[in-house]
Amino acid sequence: MKHFILLLLFSINLFANESLINKINFDTNVGADFLTTEESPYKKEARGDWNRLGKQTISVGILSLGTTAMLYMLPESFTNWDRDDIKDINGKWESNIKKGPVWDHDDAILNYVAHPYVGATYYVAARKSDFNEFDSFLYSFAMSTFFWECGVEAFAEVPSIQDLIVTPVFGSMLGEYLYRQEKKILANDGKIRDSKLLGKVALILIDPIGTFTNLIGFKDTNIQGAWTVVNSQQIEDGIVKNKPILGLTFASTF
Amino acid sequence: MKKILFLLVTVISLSTYSKDYSVNIYTGFQNGNWRIRDVSEKESLKNGAYHFSIEIEKELYEHIYFLGGIAYENGYKLKNSQGSYDIIPLYIGGRYTYHDGAKWNPYISGKIGYPIFTNKKDINLNNKEYNGWANFALGLTYLDKYMMELGYKQHITNYAELNDDYDVRLFSISIGYRLY
Q1: Contact between A244 and A234 (Cβ < 8 Å)
Q2: Is residue A234 part of a domain?
Q3: pLDDT band of A61, cuts 50, 70, 90
Q4: Chain A: residue nearest B101 by CA?
Q5: Domain end position, chosen among A165, A187, A209
Q6: DSSP output for B6-54
Q7: Together in a domain, A171 and A248
Q8: Does A4 sit within 8 Å of B94, measured CB to CB?
Q9: Which residues of B are less than 8 Å from A21 in CB distance?
Q10: Which terminus of chain B has fewer CB atoms gathered within 10 Å of its CB, N or C?
């Protein structure tokens, strides 16, 4: 009950005139300076880049396998996954689908923070592939419902009604907010409060699927990486000395 | 009943306080079944129930709307029991519209909330912290004023005698009207 009261209080805040939502209602032209009119994601009829979205979807598949492995290693008390059941995989998926969906008893953090974030990452993947808000919601809905909840996760547990609704519905709201935040950061030369590091971390968190897609070679932005040796100048006993440092250069161009 | 009226007044007061909002009302019928958690056994509800809800809608972005509201669902009567109860779900959710501004505007909505059990007759329900209510719907808006909706609803109950979770699943048909 207390979680719903918190959610309710948060939502009431949305209705206040000086509420959070007014603060996040950004100028939709933000970032337009680096996008041509044709490329602008804010135009009403987005065309949708299926090729890019396809690559993002493959990335999600690879990421999900990793996530599944990670969740499998986490304590059962956290995930509510029964490892013995997972071992008996034959028929488990069908049985879980037939039982579901049910109201789960997972931690509120998992249900109301982690799931909306995952829904948001799906949404951002579609939005950045030039799909409009409704289409991006559909993508988030399809991925969270058919790929994860009734797909991968159904091998381990009965689909959850909260996850089926919270992930795409609140995930898409959060996703649109993050998508616009990303435009603001990029318009600010990739910085948050003059910090390039903060900006970079935020950009990765906003679009982890896109970041991962680039890392595995589906480049739609120009990412360059190389081992480098540079000389570091250090002063020892009043004498300037050059000391070699091995490093990894990692740069991206948006 | 006082609590319900208080909540209703709160929702309506908030709507008059805020800008850029709409207030929607819905009514309709629903029917379905309940079943014990992790057991295949299921039973139909004895009668269809009617529902009524009032909600506030606010446009967050184009095609994306936030919803918050209160509903009243009457007449949950189980086949093998004389007992019955009503629920008052408090919920928040979202609506995603396909074509804002068009005469016919399809939408998808999802809501999640907490059901308050009320009007219990010959039935002893446990109050569990994880009680919940959820609603997923496909709908059409006509002239941005009238709505018709097909929905799937679910809530969870826990009978004190059996201490078992029961998932109650229903399909609903609703009509709605945008007050302003």
Answers
A1: no
A2: yes
A3: confident
A4: A44
A5: A187
A6: HHHHHHHHHHHHSSSEEEEEEEEEEEEEEEETTS--EEEBSS-EEEEEE
A7: no
A8: no
A9: 58, 60, 66
A10: N
d(CA A116, CA A104): 16
Contacts of B43 (CB under 8 A, 6+ apart): B33, B34, B35, B78, B79, B80
- pLDDT range class, residue B7, cuts 50, 70, 90: low
Nearest residue, CB atoms, B63 vs list A12, A132, A164: A132
Quick check: is A81 in a domain?
Answer: yes
Where does the pLDDT of residue B168 fall: very low under 50, low under 70, confident under 90, or very high at 90 and above? confident
Instruction: Please give the tally of structural domains in chain A.
Output: 2
Q: How far is B82 from chain A (nearest CA, A)?
A: 25
Q: From A10, which residue of chain B is nearest by alpha-carbon distance?
A: B92
* CA gap A110, A6 in Å, rounded: 15
pTM over 0.90: no
Residues A232 and A181 in one domain: no
Domain that includes residue A121, residue range: 27-187
- CA-to-CA distance for A95 and A154, rounded, in angstroms? 9
Domain boundary among A187, A206, A230: A187
Same domain, A88 and A179: yes
Q: Which of A6, A13, A15, A80 should we substitute to test contact with B (largest number of B Cβ atoms within 10 Å)?
A: A15
Please tell me which of the candidates A44, A162, A173 has its beta carbon nearest to residue B112.
Answer: A162
Q: Which of A10, A19, A134, A149 to mutate to test the interface with B (most CBs of B within 10 A)?
A: A134
CA pair distance A166, A181, nearest whole angstrom: 21
Identify whether A42 is part of a domain: yes
ipTM (interface predicted TM): 0.86
* Within-domain flag for A201: no
Check CB contact under 8 Å for B66 and A165: no
Q: Check A21 against B58: CB less than 8 A apart.
A: yes
The rounded distance, in Å, linking the Cα atoms of A207 and A217 is: 16
Contact B134 A162 (CB under 8 A): yes
Domains and CATH numbers, chain B: 2-178 (2.40.160.20)
Question: Which residues fall within 8 angstroms of residue A185, CB to CB, at 6 or more apart?
Answer: A191, A192, A199, A202, A203
**Do A57 and A132 lie in a common domain?**
yes
